[in-house]
Specification:
This protein is about 40% helix and about 15% strand. With about 350 residues, the protein is α/β, with parallel strands linked by helices. It starts with 13 loop residues before the first helix and ends with a helix.
Length: about 350
């Protein structure tokens, strides 16, 4: 058998490892470990990359969503419209702040929130629409922005998978009232642990988010609101600064691999994601026309690892049973999607397996 093709390999090359080790040593020697100069520098640098006036480092992508919602004043009695397909953290954050997630089915081509269904889901209790830039592709926000404005509700971006993705020239995280990013190690910009980011162009939201991440503090020993311990570590900030410098190279590599898949799998019984230099393919997800489990087994037998993002729609998850509604497109996506490895050798290897019938 040929060498195994892992779904993901998080080990850095020698050059990157050396830079990461130097950054870690710098933090160790500094004696500053939480919300210090590394966090401040990272916030400036990534805010400039995203194109947002404010970037607030927090402890995880989930906490970035929680802080974003709290900064908008979302709480008990409120409703937040969310897509029915994606990661659990999106509706979980809504429940964590005491609000009700209102699940809306998705568009079958993009897996994004269906605009017409979102409009029908709005009520007098709706406080926000939470969109997810799933699989590194930005949601087309024009209609949703008009919808949010006309109903005077906030628009929130879950950009956990979309650092570097663009919509009409604007980066994810700078498209709505507030954005939330994850730096989980498997993300396009991933730490060596957990971390997250809140982005906004609104001064008031930024001020609230900075307070919320330190227990609602506005100055030392004064707490004006209930917040939490949502602080980003200096160590993760220093490591992310190193990887941020390489992010354009990382994005270019991902887009190149996506182009390789478009050629190699053009005749395969798969629906491929659109090919666009605006997308980041985190992860690279296809739709299987046929028996997904059989295809996974064939690829596994050839040493090629795959993953399923996500095997259940969010309305099928037991945790969200109280808010369950019919979402047939999300349910169908959960049965058919398959994530392929983002490695330069993967497209040809997979095409060879499928070519053997």
């Amino acid at each position: 058998m040929a060498d195994r093709v892992p779904f993901v390999d998080l080990r850095p090359d020698a050059s990157l490892a050396a830079e990461l080790e130097a950054a870690a040593a710098r933090v160790v020697r500094s004696g500053r470990y939480v919300l210090g100069p590394e966090v401040e520098a990272f916030e400036r640098e990534i805010g400039g990359f995203v194109g947002a006036r404010h970037a607030i480092g927090v402890s995880s992508g989930t906490d970035a969503l929680i802080v974003s919602l709290l900064a908008l004043g979302v709480g008990p009695g409120d409703e937040v419209v969310v897509p029915a397909f994606g990661f659990v953290a999106t509706p979980e954050a809504v429940v964590r702040v005491g609000a009700r997630p209102v699940f809306v089915d998705v568009d079958p081509a993009s897996y994004h929130l269906d605009v017409a269904r979102a409009a029908a889901a709005l009520t007098s209790r709706t406080k926000a629409i939470l969109v997810v830039h799933l699989f590194g592709r930005c949601v087309e926000l024009a209609a949703l922005s008009r919808l949010a404005a006309s109903h005077r509700v906030a628009l929130v971006e879950d950009a956990a998978q979309a650092i570097g993705a663009r919509l009409h020239g604007t980066q994810a995280g700078a498209l709505a009232d507030v954005g939330a990013f994850s730096f989980f190690p498997t993300k396009t910009l991933g730490g060596l642990g957990d971390g997250g980011l809140v982005t906004t162009n609104d001064d008031g939201i930024a001020q609230a988010a900075r307070s919320l991440r330190v227990h609602g503090s506005t100055q030392r020993d004064e707490f004006g609101r209930i917040g939490g311990n949502f602080r980003l570590d200096e160590l993760q900030a220093a490591l992310l600064r190193v990887k941020l410098r390489r992010l354009p190279e990382t994005l270019a590599e991902r887009r190149s691999i996506a182009r390789g898949y478009a050629v190699a799998l053009a005749a395969a019984p798969l629906d491929l994601p659109r090919l666009s230099d605006d997308d980041t393919y985190n992860p690279y997800v296809v739709r299987v026309r046929g028996d997904r489990d059989a295809l996974r087994a064939r690829l596994a037998a050839a040493g090629i690892e795959t993953a399923i993002y996500y095997p259940r729609s969010l309305t099928q998850q037991p945790a969200f049973a109280p808010w369950r509604v019919p979402t047939p497109e999300a349910d169908r996506a959960a049965r058919e999607v398959l994530a392929l490895p983002l490695r330069a050798d993967a497209p040809a290897r997979i095409a060879a397996v499928l070519g053997r019938g």
